[in-house]
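Researcher: Next entry in the queue.
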Amino acid sequence: MDKIAKYASGGGLAVACAFIALLTGLVTVAVISRYAFNAPLLFSDEISGYLLLGSVFFGLGYTMRVEGHIRVEMVIRRLPAKVQKYLTEWLRVVFLLYVLLLLAGTTVVVWSYYTVGTEAFTLLRTPLVWPALLMPIGLLILVLEVIRQIRYRSP
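Model: Structure for this entry, 155 residues:
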């Protein structure tokens, strides 16, 4: 399980970084095109949004692995070490349940987009199933990482 989660979160990080690089390149080209040639790229906003969505969701697992998510520990740090450990594990389980709920919800949305054939109301008319699919894939990577943390760091 540890290797699967490690490769999934590492792969998610690589994809997130690639999306950020593509986003940076696209925005740079769009700005140059608009101001240097007076020819805006009409699709850049849409594609930028999809790339940002993908970078966020694909980076969730790795961020969890390196404990980079925002945490408020003001109360937990004042508790005895044993209580901190049990509370942390309990909160991980609650978080896992929450992420599984999000995974189920985003999967329903993707399935709905797929069955109905929903398209974006934009110039590209992008089938929304493809950008929406980034969410459950990223959440699945996060689920693997949370399960790994529960399994290997439990009291």
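Model: Residues 2-153 form one domain.
Researcher: Noted, moving on.
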